[in-house]
Amino acid sequence: MPSVALPRPRSAPWPLPRDLRAIALVHAALLVFGAVAILLPAPAQGWAVLACVVGYNVALPLVARSVGRADWVAMWAFLLPVSIFQVLPDWILADLVGTLAFPDVGGPRVDDVIPVAMGGMWVAPLFAALALGGGRPGRTAALAAGIFLGTELLAPVVDLWEPTGDTTRVLGVAIYVIPAEAALGWAAAVGLGLVRDRPAAVRVGAALAVSTFYLGALVIAHFLIDIAGWRITA
Predict the structure, then answer these.
(1) What is the reported pLDDT for 134?
(2) Lower Cβ count inside 10 Å, N or C end of the chain?
(3) Which residues contact 123 (CB under 8 A, 6 or more apart)?
(4) In angstroms, how far is CA 228 from the centroid of its own chain?
């Protein structure tokens, strides 16, 4: 009796490479555990969010190194100090300008104004924008604008932060922050490209420069959209 050849099982089309699967798993885990954390009542919510941020910033470089992506490790090593310095613009917006507030849902805070977790929370969206943008400043800026728009829409709903004061808003989002966050993505891509292989002190200085540039972009955007804009149309 002649044998019948059975069809081979078809593999999934365009399977992701191992490094992309690994990094996608890290971000999927962040989304899952982050969703659980923000559903907890205070003060457990704040501590759980901090644990997620710390866990992500530990897992990301370890996984990137395990799959041989030294470029991702370098990206994380640059973005972590950027994220830490981002506490300063947030602090100024919350405590001086009065256009941002961070509800107290538990966990340690800086000057009782900003959750310590914010010091590491900027890494994930900036990493995604840089990785997907291939390090190109223009593309990274556009991706950063889209990614941060999503976070700005979600944050007030889950009590991470919320716009306050007299600002122009659409769907609850303060409009002035979006061009500034696009500028942040552009500056992060430029800064990383310039100092990726430089000594640690140079990279930290560049990270501070990126955050300072973002603060300037915030102030300019807030002035043009919320202050000068109303005077021109008055």
Answers:
(1) 92
(2) N
(3) 56, 57, 60, 76, 79, 80, 82, 83
(4) 29
**What are 176's two structure tokens?**
């002035």
Domain encompassing residue 217: 70-233
For residue 15, is it within any domain? no
Q: Name the DSSP class of 160.
A: S
List the beta bridge partners of residue 101. Answer: 162
Q: Are 81 and 198 in contact (CB under 8 A)?
A: no
Question: Does the N-terminal peptide bond of residue 43 adopt cis geometry, omega within 30 degrees of 0?
Answer: yes
Q: How far from 128 is each of 110, 125, 170, 232, CA to CA, in Å?
A: 26, 5, 25, 38
Q: Give the mean pLDDT of 131-150.
A: 95
- List, for residues 86-112, the tens digit of each pLDDT value: 999 999 999 999 999 999 999 999 999
Q: Average pLDDT for residues 206-215, to the nearest whole number?
A: 98
Quick: pLDDT tens for 110-126: 999 999 999 999 999 99
Residue 207 lies in a domain: yes
Q: Which of 143, 232, 183 is nearest to 151 (CA)?
A: 143
Number of domains in the chain: 1
Instruction: Determine the pLDDT at residue 234.
Output: 43
Bridge partners (DSSP) listed for residue 109: 115
